[in-house]
């Protein structure tokens, strides 16, 4: 249980909000990469990222205000598969995501 009063607790985001957030974060990441990623691969990446977030939703909901921790989770859980899908260097992808995400 959280130490915050009821009015300061955040509820878990809706699936629509999660999907839109994942899409925006990956769009910003691709812009910072400065390379062309085909639309089909971007959509596959969004689906992959969305599945990972839904699978870990409770932990993400608890740490929603800690962007550094969320970016660390993204590096561990998502970046390797996404780098392979988009055929980019994992370290470059991670640094672009951190710049876009703010973590």
Describe what this molecule looks like in 3D:
This is Dehydrogenase. It comes from Paenibacillus mellifer. It is built from six helices and no strands. It is mainly α. It has one domain (13-101). It is globular and about 45 Å long.
Compact description:
The protein is mostly helical and 103 residues long.
Number of helices: 6
Computed CA radius of gyration, to the nearest angstrom: 14 Å
Order of helices and strands: HHHHHH
Tell me about the largest β-sheet: none
Oligomer: single chain
Fraction of residues in helix: over 70%
Low-confidence stretches: none
Give me the secondary-structure category. Answer: mainly alpha
User: Average pLDDT value?
Assistant: 90
Straight-line distance between termini: 26 Å
- Proportion of strand residues: under 5%
Number of domains: 1
Q: Report the count of strand segments.
A: 0
Shape: globular
Protein name: Dehydrogenase
Organism: Paenibacillus mellifer
């Amino acid at each position: 249980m959280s130490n915050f009063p009821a009015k300061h607790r955040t509820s878990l985001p809706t699936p629509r909000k999660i999907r839109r957030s994942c899409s925006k974060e990956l769009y910003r990441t691709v812009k910072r990469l400065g390379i062309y990623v085909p639309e089909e691969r971007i959509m596959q990446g969004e689906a992959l990222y969305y599945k990972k977030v839904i699978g870990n939703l409770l932990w993400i909901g608890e740490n929603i205000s800690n962007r550094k921790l969320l970016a660390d989770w993204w590096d561990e859980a998502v970046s390797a598969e996404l780098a392979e899908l988009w055929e980019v260097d994992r370290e470059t992808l991670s640094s672009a995501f951190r710049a876009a995400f703010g973590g």
